[in-house]
Amino acid sequence: MLDVKTLESWLWEAACKIRGEIDAPKYKDYILPLIFLKRISDVFEDEVAAFGEKVGNYETAQMLVEQDHNLVRFYIPPEARWENIIKQSQNLGEYLTDAVRAVARENPKLQGVIDIVDFNATTAGQRVISDERLKMLVDTISKHRLGLKDVEPDILGRAYEYLLRKFAEGSGQSAGEFYTPSEVAVLMAHIVDPQPGEEIFDPCVGSGGLLIKCHLLFRERYDDDPNVRSLKFFGQEILASTYAMANMNVFIHNMEAEIALGDTMNLPKFLDERGGLRKFDIVVSNPMWNQNFQKSTYENDTFGRFTFGFPPSSSADWGWVQHMYASLKENGRMAVVLDTGSVSRGSGTSGSNRERDIRKQFVEKDLVEAVILLPENLFYNTSAPGIILVINKNKAQERSSQVLLVNASKLFEKGRPKNYLPDSTIELVSSIYHNWREEEGISKIVSLDNIAKNDYNLSPSRYVSQNNNDEVLPLDEAVLELKEAEEERQEADRKLQAILEELLGS
User: Fold this and answer.
1) Of 194, 200, 384, 450, which sits most exposed with the smallest number of CB within 10 A?
2) Higher per-residue confidence, 329 vs 493
């Protein structure tokens, strides 16, 4: 059996074969489908061989599989089988494109997943990646089998996740569209603590990392015990290329998952039999921070999601929180990564403030269970710190009318190119959360009355000081507050103008 380190170094070696010809962020578009094709091709061979032992010989098994493609999980047509791909020396880009499209035709589940890249693509008359480089890539991928007896799904999955992280490191700003740092995802999995038979949803699924970390934690605890009900996973993604990555990722991890393509906020795909939002036991997500949605997104909503109020156009953070909350079952719980300003903006200002007013309702309904402040420079698309907001529709009695604030801003180790959370931080923070305890300089249990006195500011640094540092509003947060104030002023002006016109008209 291949170990994870061998797989990681081998897969990165394969990726390096096409470095130079294409931009780093585009490596993944070429190498990920090929690794996936290699895996399902090798597994297909193994399944036919195992079937051959049942029916007497390999040739009979081959004949029966050709007659009934449902005898295997994914039927791989002859031209797409790896043994034939490695024989190609001419027009390889065209051959690979035809091969992955043939696989997609035979396996509807893989349409829009394995067949989204054109290996023969050109730009300004030049091939994006030459047949020579593609041949080097195929030859490198061919060094190891990826069949059922060669590598366990979770080991291959971890190596695949490693590749996604390496691609994220080279992708700069765009990385946040598909990748949440692995250790943040692990911490969130520990926080939501999946139980047997539960359904888990990510409405901004990216490449699937948050769902996968829940799956891996569950596997570690129950070790494929046949008496334990498995988890079911669901996700929606707006970008076609990222949707494809997520599907490949969950298939490789051998998860029971359904990933949908589409705009979650404007066209949610997971609905119940009455056409309302489908409900889940757990929601985990890392939506893009401070998105700018049109007011019509909230005004025209037909799913009853925004009952706490409309967020400002400058930041959709609390729009996402409300969508996720509306997607929870009666006893559901959720953990979402947001910009730090989402839990403090508007507090301390006079008059109304949309984000503060929405936040106030979540606090007063005793739905906020915890807020965890993360260190800075963890995420690939920003150096800013984030927070994990934990919402629980079924808080334990001893946690009633309280919120746990955790300041983990200093609990990191320096890395290149990004900081990271060591295992000790994940263990400490999850222990503090599950044992509901205060730790000097790290965590504080705060009453709802105290939060109300602080005008519904939920920033952990407000309650858990470190090195006696006062909380300072970052420049980008100040700009967002200014935008919201200006939006409120314009709304007040419109209302005043309407009243004046009515008075003058009468």
Assistant:
1) 450
2) 329
